[in-house]
Amino acid sequence: ERTIQRIAAGEVVERPASVVKELIENSLDAGATRVAVSVEAGGTEGIRVRDDGVGIPADQLEAAVAEHATSKIGDIEDLEAGVGTLGFRGEALYTVGAVSRLTVRSRPPDADVGAEVTVEGGDVGEVRPAGCPTGTTVEVDDLFYNTPARKKFLKRVSTEFDHVNTVVTGYALANPDVAVSLEHDGRETFATEGNGDLRSAVLAVYGREVAESMLEVDWEPESEEEGAPPATRVTGLVSHPETTRSARDYLATYVNDRYVTAGALREAVLEAYGGQLAPDRYPFAVLFVEVPPDEVDVNVHPRKLEVRFDREAGVRAAVESAVESALLDHGL
Ligand code: ADP
Ligand code: MG
After folding, report:
1. In ligand 1, which atom is closest to the CA atom of 138?
2. Ligand 1, pocket-test mutation among 6, 29, 100, 124, most atoms within 8 A of CB
3. What is the model's pLDDT at position 89?
4. E-strand stretches of the chain
5. DSSP state of 228
6. Which numbered ligand comes closest to the C-alpha of 71?
7. Which of 85, 125, 226, 290 sits in a 20 to 30 Å window from 260, CA-based?
8. pLDDT of 14 higher than 70
């Protein structure tokens, strides 16, 4: 069956970080103001995501872990638009439940008690009452315990944790109005305040030195001749050229609020710094690029981290100009 084949191929759940990504998206879709992620052994042994969102009523818990469970597609137009909510495929919980021991525990704000359901290797247990706070907690233990071929592909704990950290960091920076925290083997990695301030989120994630060095970016093209698609806007923070790291991992780019790994955008950021960076040093950046939805194709890749632009050169130039003018504003 198609879904099973896709699970086996690792197309849907590749590693702990992909589970974390799906669970955070569900929490954000549920309107959470707090999302607490905690993982054991890089997520290979355990993953828990707790939120204070709208919750799942007891009578809908079983459906939530079933195939094609989504409560989010109103009609085919929603599906084509692909926006509105982050996840729209209705198969994340089902897929994760097929390759792990999954527990979903939830209580909507208007319910007196919560309920929980457990799925083990695809076998859905009974829905039982459970005492729990408002919101939803999803626990995923022993990922890939029943698919040894997939389990073999997992890397070292530290590598898996790096991937988890990148995902959680990406969402924390994109949602400064949500308090996002990450814990590994019982130790807190970071916790943002959720006060809506991007610099404060950067402080929580990257520390004070980086947060204080960040320069504000807020750019729109002055005229159409600049080649950027109409209604382009670039906002966010980039670091002072002297506040750098030896890896490019700290360039977080978002297109229409979706975290993307767009090589062209990263290149554009680096171009803007020109000769100001020491050799093999890379700045920090948290950049939000807004373009009209019809200028961008976000569905190039199944995990949707890549994007394609109708006018890539224009968007690239916009990002470069945006960062350049932030540097110029500070005499750099
Ligand atoms: P999708 O997100 O694509 O709809 P999922 O398999 O990720 O599919 O989730 C299935 C359904 O379970 C969602 O549509 C939603 O109704 C419910 N759900 C999952 N996670 C949460 C959560 N954290 N809070 C509230 N509802 C949730
Ligand atoms: Mg989902």
Report:
1. 23
2. 29
3. 61
4. 34-40, 46-51, 101-107, 114-120, 123-124, 128-130, 135-141, 179-184, 187-191, 214-219, 233-239, 244-245, 251-255, 258-260, 282-283, 285-290, 296-297, 308-309
5. P
6. 1
7. 226
8. yes
Pair 166, 261: CB distance under 8 Å: no
Residue 87 above 70 pLDDT? no
Q: What is the CB < 6 Å shell around ligand 1?
A: 22, 26-27, 30, 51, 53-56, 64, 69-72, 87-94, 136
Work out the angle at residue 167's Cα, subtended by the Cα atoms of residues 3 and 285, and round it to the nearest 5 degrees: 140
ipTM: 0.99
Higher pLDDT, 231 or 221: 221
pLDDT value of position 142? 96
Read off the pLDDT of each residue in 167-181 and give the average, rounded to a whole number. 96
**Burial label, 57 (beta-carbon count in 10 A; 0-12, 13-18, 19+):** middle
Residue 75 has pLDDT above 60, yes or no: no
Look at residue 225 in the predicted model and tell me its pLDDT.
Answer: 59
Tally of CB atoms within 10 A around 149: 10
pTM of the model: 0.90
> Rounded to the nearest whole angstrom, what is the distance from the C-alpha of residue 29 to the centroid of ligand 2?
8
In a mutational test of the pocket of ligand 1, which residue from 93, 95, 116 has the highest number of ligand atoms less than 8 Å from its CB? 93
Kindly calculate the radius of gyration of the chain based on its CA atoms and give it in whole angstroms.
21
**Ligand 2 center from residue 50 Cα (angstroms):** 14
User: What are the residues whose beta carbon lies below 5 Å from ligand 2 (ion)?
Assistant: 26, 87, 92
Spatial distance between the Cα atoms of 303 and 61, rounded to a whole number of angstroms: 25
Q: How far apart are the first and last CA of the chain?
A: 58
261 has a pLDDT exceeding 80? no
Residue bearing the CA closest to ligand 1, atom 19: 26
